[in-house]
Design goal:
About 40% of the residues lie in helices and about 20% in strands. It is α/β, with parallel strands linked by helices and about 500 residues long.
């Protein structure tokens, strides 16, 4: 889903799509009301579903990794629709093109727009504010107009593709004004919006000078989807406070229209992760990882290097675990995989330096020859390598300070084919609503996380298996195809 989602962007090589279960394949049919031959699904997202990679001596468009792409692309292709998105680099947009039977419509951004719209308003104003202001948001009024103008450009690109009766699905915090622009220009379209990150409480959302404009932009949609019920409640409160919208069963009434507002928790391609985990080469790599770490208990964390992920707090919890003497570097090891993110932004470079200093301190105090306490990797991994680490880990430590969902927790559960392993999960991740058989912790409480790690390392095998079995059942009930199907059925009015 790209670096702004709560999953991890990994580097993949081309390979045939995995064989899915019949139930998953059934969900790839166009959802909702019967459509005529002229009906389309048009997706509007910050990024395109493809990226340009080296293919021999030339460059070729290849599918981007991530759950959103894998779940929604087949629906767009089957309907003969379009995907509007940014290629990810500054400059004029390439011409629209076809890829795997789907129309791709690139949107161009200038260097100034990348700085103001993307790095500025989207990621230095909205991102921290929507994540409970774990870092103070920058309310720079010079970034607002570029945000408006870029949203208009995305909407214009969509309007050139949308026909009467089409379904339009707009994604995420970068494009919150697009639904209203589409509504004003194409009132016959069915417009959906899904927010992949949290929606903040009223008391924080109120800080935005442009709060009413953003709410009205979202209310242009027929269906507004969030990850968690608490996000729904926060949005309803904000809309009632700053717009004329009034509560109605299942959502709001706004300017004579009914707007459905609901939670649609996103998930992963469970069958794909299970298939990768079952690959003999991945299993062999997992065994090699354990051998290289001297068969110690492995505590694993995988995150984008982002201040919302709580990386420094969890390292402090592991340091406390070692300090209390209930574990040592001889019997356990902490592996932190941190995917580089927005390194040109000061807050991210400061976090990187802080994490690296903390890793150095822990290793300096607790490591012995042949028994390093923390292995820290700041890099992208291939999907196969990432799943090998999931398979190798005894404990998965997922402790974001705030997360819309956190797909890493779900990926770990999907790869535990033998029902072993323990998940320690932040209560402030959306995944905690579904994965409640994990060891749930408050990531701000370093002592509690340390005690949860101690418990996870000592958990009896039968209890660990019972918990993991429950987690896997919950995951199978809602994979990414089910999520897409349910949302599009709601958008179609079912």
């Amino acid at each position: 889903m790209g670096e702004d989602s709560d999953g991890i962007e990994v580097t993949e090589v081309d390979r045939p799509p995995p064989q899915r279960t019949p139930g998953a394949r059934d969900l790839l049919r166009p959802a909702g009301r019967p459509r005529s031959a002229t009906s389309n699904l048009v997706v509007v997202a910050n990024r395109m579903p493809v990226r340009r990679l080296a293919h021999g001596e030339s460059l070729a468009w290849q599918p981007s990794p991530g759950g959103l792409t894998s779940a929604v692309t087949p629906l767009v292709r089957k309907s003969g629709g379009s995907w509007i998105g940014w290629p990810g680099t500054a400059g004029p947009a390439p011409d629209p093109f076809k890829h795997m039977g789907m129309s791709i419509v690139p949107v161009g951004l200038s260097k100034k727009e990348v700085e103001a719209f993307y790095n500025g308003f989207s990621n230095r104003t909205l991102w921290p504010l929507y994540h409970d202001a774990v870092r103070p948001p920058e309310l720079n009024r010079k970034w607002w107009q570029p945000y408006v103008e870029v949203n208009q450009r995305y909407a214009e690109a969509a309007l050139r593709r949308v026909r009467d009766g089409d379904l339009v699905w707009v994604h995420d915090y970068h494009l919150q004004l697009v639904p209203l622009i589409l509504r004003e220009r194409k009132p016959s379209a069915r417009i959906g919006f899904f927010l992949h990150i949290p929606f903040p409480p009223l008391e924080l959302f109120s800080w935005l000078p442009w709060r009413a404009e953003i709410l009205r932009g979202l209310l242009g949609a027929d269906v507004i989807g969030f990850q968690r019920r608490q996000d729904v409640e926060s949005f309803l409160r904000a809309a009632a406070r700053f717009t004329p919208a009034r509560p109605r069963e299942g959502g709001l009434e706004f300017e004579g229209r009914r707007v459905r507002v609901d939670a649609f928790p996103i998930s992963i391609d469970v069958a794909d992760f299970e298939s990768t985990a079952a690959d003999p080469s991945v299993a062999a790599h997992a065994r090699q990882i354990r051998e290289r770490l001297n068969e110690r208990k492995i505590i694993l964390s995988v995150d984008r290097l982002d201040y919302t992920k709580g990386i420094d707090s969890r390292l402090s919890a592991y340091e406390d675990l070692l300090s209390r003497g209930v574990a040592s570097a001889e019997d356990c090891v902490f592996v932190q995989i941190a995917v580089p993110s927005r390194e040109s932004v000061k807050a991210y470079s400061e976090l990187r330096d802080r994490v690296e200093r903390l890793v150095g301190r822990i290793n300096g105090q607790f490591s012995d020859p042949g028994s390093v306490a923390v292995h820290y990797f700041r890099r992208n991994l291939s999907k196969e390598n990432l799943v090998a680490y999931y398979r190798a880990a005894d404990v998965m430590l997922v402790t974001p300070l705030k997360d819309g969902m956190n797909l890493v927790a779900k990926e770990y559960v999907a790869t535990r084919l033998d029902e072993s392993g323990v998940l320690v999960l932040s209560e402030f991740a959306g995944a905690a609503d579904e994965l409640d058989s994990a060891l749930i912790v408050n990531p701000y409480d370093v002592d509690a996380v340390s005690l949860a790690l101690e418990r996870a390392l000592q958990l009896p095998a039968d209890e660990a298996r019972r918990r993991m079995r429950s987690l896997r059942r919950a995951l199978r009930r809602n994979d990414v195809y089910h999520w897409a199907d349910v949302f599009l059925r709601a958008l179609a009015g079912e």
